[in-house]
Amino acid sequence: MSEPALELEDPLFARPRTAGTGFDEMLTHITPARALEVEPPTCRKPFEWRTELVMGAGINLLQARYGGSFTYAPRAPNGSLILRFCGAGAAEVTVRGKKVTNTRGTVLVAPWGDINRTTVLPDARANLPAASTFIGISPEIVNDCLRDMFPDLMLKQFEFMPLLDLDTRHGQMLASLCRGVAQGMIGERLLARSEKKRPCSSARRLSVSCSKKLITGQATMAGNDRPVWCRVMSREPSTSCTPTCICPSR
Questions:
Q1: Which residue has the higher pLDDT, 115 or 237?
Q2: Alpha-carbon distances of 196 from 179, 187, 200, 207, rounded to whole Å
């Protein structure tokens, strides 16, 4: 499996260390048993993959490279906020019934419960695997951050614009914060595995701090003349209301 030309120093796309050639084996490294409804690859050739999963206190980081196409959907989604960065290839993702394509230079942002279906697509023309990085932030952290600004709202009430261009100012800000999260998570993993077994509190504080800045920095009240990042929807489907624009701060 050829390797995508990614920035070696970018913590978002660090090279995963665990590798294999079996699809079912790959699934055991990226998700708990029975967490996903999966349509496996149709081709019979070996499914090459690389993954690195780092689980923290309310924040998970998954860096993965897939040598074949497959489709998955959450079996029992929770209220986590998911950010999916694409390093190579693409992913066709259905969010609230609308299909978007996550390619390099974009980030998918959506609550896990809003993601209906994802098809992973390697770059066949360049013979490159699909490379992606996921950051999952727990409902507890997300709602704790939102509570300070919007006491009566929860994550499930936010309707996100699912795809953000990383070349924009707001996209660059989001990517920078996520690099801080990834750097903190990777630092925590390295400290945990070191011979001295030093405390991981500094790395954990960095990842949590960046996650909170990510959420609060993006969910800032703004006027209608600024680009909408997400909307706040009514709790009750039958209640008529005008959605409130939530936009990245300038």
A1: 115
A2: 26, 14, 11, 22
Mode of pairing for the β-strands spanning 163-165 and 106-111: antiparallel
Cβ neighbours for 64, distance < 8 A, ≥ 6 positions apart: 16, 30, 49, 50, 51, 52, 131, 132, 133, 134
Query: In this predicted structure, what is the pLDDT of residue 87?
Result: 92
Q: Which backbone phi and psi does 62 adopt, to 5 degrees?
A: -125, 120
**SS3 call for 244:** strand
The one-letter amino acid code at 245 reads C
How are beta strands 163-165 and 36-39 bridged, if at all? Answer: unpaired
pLDDT, average across residues 19-41: 87
CA atoms within 13 A on the CB side of 166: 19
pLDDT in tens, 167-186: 988 888 888 888 888 887 77
| CB burial of residue 240 (10 Å; 0-12, 13-18, 19+) | exposed
Q: 220 phi and psi, to 5 degrees?
A: -110, 130
Backbone angles phi, psi at 175, to 5 degrees: -65, -40
Sheet holding 90-95, edge to edge: 36-39, 70-74, 115-121, 90-95, 98-103
Residue type, 203: A
Upper half-sphere CA count for residue 49 (Cβ side, 13 Å): 26
CB 180, CB 207: distance < 8 Å: yes
d(CA 183, CA 50): 19
Distance CA 129, CA 120 (A): 10
Tell which phi-psi region holds residue 36, choosing left (phi > 0), alpha (psi between -120 and 50) or beta: beta
